[in-house]
Predict the 3D structure of the following.
Amino acid sequence: MARTEVCKGEDGLMSASERYSSGDLQAVHFPSISVDGNPIEMIRGTFSWVESFAVESINWYTKEKTSKARWSRTLRFAAVLFLALGTVAPVVAVGMGWAEQSVWGYGLIGLGACCAAIDKVFGFSSSWMRYMSTAVALNRQLLRLQVSWPKFEARLIANSNDEVFSEAIQELAAFVDDFAALMESETNSWMSEFQNHILQLETGAGASLPPRSP
């Protein structure tokens, strides 16, 4: 497993810039915040860390979406191409007087079906769509926080008391919880889809085996 690098910004707070360096979700450290510091700076530092965490997560989904989309397009294009060639090949072969060669059409149709099956089993198309919808939903959550955050900044500057400080922390905590819930939902969808595909493969393999003799 790759080691997670934890970087520090100008404010000394740790960010999650290498959170997905290995391609997988990795834990990150929450920044150490001194209770003796300026409350406004403490809140700003916490917001910066939360924002960095969210941006890294969205960027990961966006990056992974690109590779899934590439595989999906390639396999779908190959499936359509092989199926089309498999349909046309027998007609052309018969028309050219090569009737014996028309059986190759079945092989081409089989290759097209294999490409479609690979896409389905490995979930390239479904992952592409799932990652895209998750990235859009996460980005909407982040934009909502970024737009509403100046309100807390203004309140903290005008009246930096415990009540406003507590509300700001609760706002960030609620954002992280909702953000993580979206990611968890996407992960659960992937697990459910993967389990269904495994079950279908096992069922299909079992049905294709000859019955055991008593």
